[in-house]
């Protein structure tokens, strides 16, 4: 399992999962639309991700290119499993029940869950 990444690091990963490799400046250009982060902040986050072996670096002249070393689906599967294990004793049903009781499930959500369950049964 990949070491946990912070919310800020996750923002950087989403950019890299969409397109890679990118320079720190290119990542910053994409993140600045949502966040008011400086280039130095982005470089710090990229360094942390590289130290966690989640992002790889490749030197290109005087710059570094950054690429994800972990697939988005793989990361999300691990994080989701840890979340369900920690908060719901490893069972998904209490999570869905909690969301339903809190009126967090829309009619579309329920329809999609029903469709998923039909597919899983088939």
List keywords for this structure.
mainly alpha, Penicillinase repressor fold, 2 domains, two-stranded antiparallel sheet
Account of the 3D structure:
- With 122 residues, the chain is mainly alpha-helical.
- The protein has two domains: 7-68, Orthogonal Bundle (Arc Repressor Mutant, subunit A), CATH 1.10.10.10; 72-121, Penicillinase repressor fold.
- It contains six helices and two strands; from the N terminus they run H-H-H-E-E-H-H-H.
- It has helices spanning 7-18, 24-31, 39-51, 72-88, 92-101, 107-121; strands spanning 55-60, 63-68.
- It has a two-stranded antiparallel ribbon.
- Helix 2 packs across helix 3.
- 15% of the residues are buried.
- Belongs to the BlaI transcriptional regulatory family.
- One of its GO terms (molecular function) is DNA binding.
- It comes from Parasphingorhabdus halotolerans.
Short overview:
The chain has six helices and two strands. With 122 residues, it is mainly alpha-helical.
Give the C-alpha Rg.
18 Å
For the largest beta-sheet, the strand count, sense and barrel status come to: 2 strands, antiparallel
Name the overall outline.
elongated
N-to-C SSE series? HHHEEHHH
Average pLDDT reading: 92
**Second rung of CATH, namely the architecture of the largest domain:** Orthogonal Bundle
Helix content: 55-70%
- Structural class based on helices, strands and sheet pairing: mainly alpha
The first-level CATH class of the largest domain is given as Mainly Alpha
Write out the CATH superfamily name of the largest domain: Winged helix-like DNA-binding domain superfamily/Winged helix DNA-binding domain
């Amino acid at each position: 399992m990949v070491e946990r990444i912070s919310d800020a690091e996750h923002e950087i990963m989403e950019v890299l999962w969409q397109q890679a490799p990118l320079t720190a400046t290119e990542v910053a250009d994409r993140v600045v639309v949502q966040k008011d982060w400086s280039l130095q902040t982005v470089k710090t986050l990229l360094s942390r991700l590289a130290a966690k072996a989640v992002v790889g670096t490749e030197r290109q002249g005087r710059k570094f290119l950054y690429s994800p070393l972990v697939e988005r689906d793989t990361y999300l599967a691990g994080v989701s499993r840890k979340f369900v294990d920690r908060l719901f004793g490893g069972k998904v049903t209490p999570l869905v029940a909690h969301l339903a009781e809190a009126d967090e499930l829309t009619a579309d959500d329920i329809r999609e869950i029903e469709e998923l369950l039909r597919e899983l049964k088939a």
